[in-house]
């Protein structure tokens, strides 16, 4: 069995002080994908940067204190690649992939955007370039007898079941019709599958992000934007997927929760 977790840590240094290190020490995951690390590796305490028992690789953003992704693996990766061949996003701290035997695992932090602003235009440029890359990645992997799993904060709720207050968010970035249609193309055209939704087809959520404002967490007024997006053969091997939701608001170490899936051999 292969267990893989993904979580947006909302600043790794802050998360480490609030419970991330304890979570990592206790997890049974074989691979952990992190997003929004927000630090250069040399800014991290040694035990956080290179945790015992893990091989950690980082792709920080050129813009200090922003974005940043990482992948932690129990065994050393065979190869590491940063970015997806588009110069604007190579040093943006938004995409990192590692090769393990028979599997490529990527950590993605898709831009969050803001409707009607330059941030949304950046998100749209990222999406336009990333879709053909995903299709090509799947084709190359299939030719080599490999699977692909892109984990991370996709910053798009695909369906109404993926966001509690969907009616109030129809004009907000993350639930815009064109964003949802784009994510549909990732599944329908590029040939990937939403692992968590496959295993939980008839429920709202399970949500993975809740605003720190108000009582969103207590009321489970969340968004399901942290996804395991897998090539079809790998998706069919998923036997369990769940959100590691904190027991209470005080127990949170990020505004996101880890999303974990277990894949059969």
TrEMBL record:
GO terms for molecular function: double-stranded DNA 3'-5' DNA exonuclease activity; metal ion binding. CDD domains: Nape_like_AP-endo. GO terms for biological process: DNA repair. InterPro entries: AP_endonuc_1, Endo/exonu/phosph_ase_sf, Endo/exonuclease/phosphatase, ExoIII-like. Keywords: Hydrolase, Magnesium, Manganese, Metal-binding. Mg(2+) binds at residues 8, 36, 153, 155, 255-256. Its cofactor is Mg(2+); Mn(2+). Belongs to the DNA repair enzymes AP/ExoA family. This is Exodeoxyribonuclease-3. The lineage of its organism: Bacteria, Bacillati, Actinomycetota, Actinomycetes, Kitasatosporales.
